[in-house]
Amino acid sequence: MPIVSPTANAIHAAAEQLRDGGLIGLPTETVYGLGCDASNPDALAALYKAKGRPTNHPVIVHVASVEQLSDWAMDIPEVAHTLAKAFWPGPLTLILKKQPHVLDAITGGQDTVGIRIPSHPVALDLLRTFGGGITAPSANRFGRISPTTALHVMDEFGDHLTVLDGGPCAVGVESTIVDVSSGTPRILRPGMITAEAIQNSTPLQQTKIFTKHGPAVRVSGSLTKHYAPTTPTLLMARDDLHQAWNDLPYEEQGTLGLLLLTPLTHENGPAHVRVLGTHPTPYAAGFYATLRELDTKGLNALWIELPPNEPGWEAILDRLKRCAAL
Ligand code: TXA
Ligand code: MG
After folding, report:
1. Protein residue closest via CA to atom 15 of ligand 1
2. Global pTM?
3. Quick one: which atom of ligand 1 is closest to the CA of 93?
4. What share of the chain is helix, strand, coil (3-state, %, to 5)?
């Protein structure tokens, strides 16, 4: 019984498992996480091992309330409170100066810690019941596509892991990571909370938001080949994709998967065509599940239509570029 319905009993049992040093699959509004007690070094070692993740890559600590911020972080700048007020609970991770007790296994040996209050009710329920911080990287093996359903988590880790089923994730891509440890917000990983939204959150209008990665910060989400399907993936402008598709013989069309914003006019062939629409919000919500589904079909290639280079699409463009990296 690896996937469980998040009843009060199941939440209590999951919190107990965390206290015993166990791992739990849990839903968040962004993607599913592989959770463990953030203050238990043995549990963290087991988590890194399960994910196959290099131990020098930092992980995020999830907490239930803003009051818990100071359990993990110190010298918290005003801008952190402003962002917390505007976007928590929600898909935002803040990088802050860490408290001395925060384990190197959390921070990757850096002097900062990533913290987030998720908005998924099951995640919040588990966090409140557990009481402490829960470390939860995305519940996929290192380098693979992030999971957005309980079933995806089971596909990654097998049925010995308990996964609380919170339904499909509403946001669908990982949280926006904003480093505020220097006082000036800097986006380390784009998410569905955009640079523009951060800029507009009062009183940050005058604050310059930097989006370039600093050289000293290790962010596994910034590795080039990440979040990637195993099927060779090409990112193509609409016209090029359409032309190339029309030029293909019928039999070859059947060996491709197409991920599109809108349907092609002449879809012939035994096509594996998936259409995610022209709005970034529903596109993001369906994105990883669709990639994962197409990736299981043993296709020769995935052709992905390049979304517009417009505000709102940053997170998706970022993930697409990683998918298509060689
Ligand atoms: O939406 C999310 O953030 C999901 C859900 C489960 O909360 N979690 C997630 O975790 O995406 P993970 O471990 O897959 O990605 C966390 C990212 C990594 O790229 C990590 O390097 C970065 O956060 N990170 C964590 N702490 C950091 C720190 N102190 N400095 C810089 N980057 C940090
Ligand atoms: Mg991840």
Report:
1. 137
2. 0.93
3. 3
4. 35, 20, 50
